[in-house]
Specification:
This protein has 6 helices and 7 strands; from the N terminus they run H-H-E-H-E-H-E-E-H-E-H-E-E. The protein is of the alpha/beta class and 188 residues long.
């Protein structure tokens, strides 16, 4: 029950921020996305999942550069903003769903992004396992951890517990967190 309380609190928080989210966080979120993307080779035939997509800022960075980009979020109001942004791209879809219960078959996606998501989940390890489940073998999983929630050591420990191989770890003052580009090594 405590897990659902946290999810409901997060849902209400992002519902209330939806119309001003980009003004407050777009620059910071874009910096994290650029940091991750600078270490990821993009392929036009890639299927990409953005878990906790928010207003769809990643769409601006990947829209029309991959085969399909699916944005997933639990907040209905923030998804309204994402839907508006998605209209600019022929290959972007949005879906309301829980990051711990992603409604796709196992081994669907070539890349999975979770930018500023883990601190909002009641069990980040469960969330990472679910992201691994829907990603293909050797997929790229880009994930961030906020400095106010994780030390670099605790973030690395979490990624190791999830059996993710960290290829690149980036951080600086603008990022306000750690950006990890990982590979899925083992089955979920």
């Amino acid at each position: 029950m405590a897990e659902w309380r946290k999810k409901r609190k997060v849902l209400h928080h992002y519902n209330s921020l939806a119309t001003v989210y980009d003004e407050q966080y777009c620059e910071e979120q874009s910096a994290k996305m650029k940091a991750a993307l600078s270490s990821i080779p993009l392929k036009e035939d890639s299927l990409v999942l953005d878990v906790g997509c928010g207003t769809g800022i990643l769409f601006e960075h990947l829209g029309n550069r991959v085969k399909l980009l699916v944005g997933l979020d639990i907040s209905s109001r923030i998804l309204r903003e994402a839907k508006e942004r998605a209209k600019r791209f022929s290959n972007v879809a949005v879906l309301r769903a829980d990051a711990d219960f992603i409604p796709f078959p196992s081994e669907t996606f070539d890349m999975v992004f979770a930018i500023t998501l883990l601190q909002n989940t009641p069990n980040p390890l469960l969330t990472l396992h679910e992201m691994k489940r829907v990603s293909k073998h050797r997929s790229v999983i880009a994930v961030t951890g906020l400095k106010k929630e994780f030390t670099q050591e605790s973030f690395m420990k979490l990624l190791n517990e999830a059996k993710l191989e960290v290829s690149v770890m980036k951080t600086n003052d603008q990022l306000k967190g750690y950006v990890a580009v990982c590979k899925k090594l083992s089955a979920f």
